[in-house]
Amino acid sequence: MQDLSVYYCPVCGRYSYSQPSGLPACSLCEVSMIFLMPYSDFHFLNQEERDKFLIQKMMESDASLSGRLLAYLRSCSCKEAATLIDPRINQLESENQKMNDTIQWMHQTIWDLLHQKRHLEHQLEKYLTDCPAKQDPEITPPT
Ligand SMILES: [Zn+2]
Asked: What pTM does this model have?
């Protein structure tokens, strides 16, 4: 138990406990794990201290990790912001739908009125054709 050491995967950060004789490999990433510290020291750290130490070690060995970590955190906050905006988007979409419905109704009403006007014009034409004496409204206005 005294020789037991803690190793970590440089890709996913998983822990492994192993004797120094056998270098463990991460079962997920299939890469060799790196020595973190003797188990006797690791044992006295709480979860937060272990995580902090692991992150420090990972950042020391991979310079691009801090950039990737920040990019991930920023993408999470963007997603969070998008979910906060979501109710407003839904409200705007519903208002847009109401406006589109109103425009559709106005369009239909205009067409109905145009058809009605054309129908009345035809009726007037027919009326004037049936009554030749009343063709000139200046002389004899229709009653
Ligand atoms: Zn891994």
From this structure: 0.51
In DSSP terms, which residues pair with 15 in a beta bridge? 8
Instruction: For residue range 123-138, list pLDDT tens digits in order.
Output: 999 999 888 665 555 6
Number of domains in the chain: 1
**Cα 96 to averaged position of ligand 1 atoms, centre (Å):** 49
34: which strand partners? 8
State the residue range of the domain holding 50.
Answer: 5-62
Q: Would 87 be classed as within a structural domain? A: no
CA torsion sign for 6, 9, 10, 12 is negative
- Centre of ligand 1 to C-alpha 7, Å, is 11
Residue 77 is predicted with a pLDDT of 84
Task: Return left, alpha or beta for 43; rule: phi > 0 is left, psi -120 to 50 is alpha, else beta.
Answer: alpha
How many Å lie between the centroid of ligand 1 and the Cα of residue 32?
Answer: 9
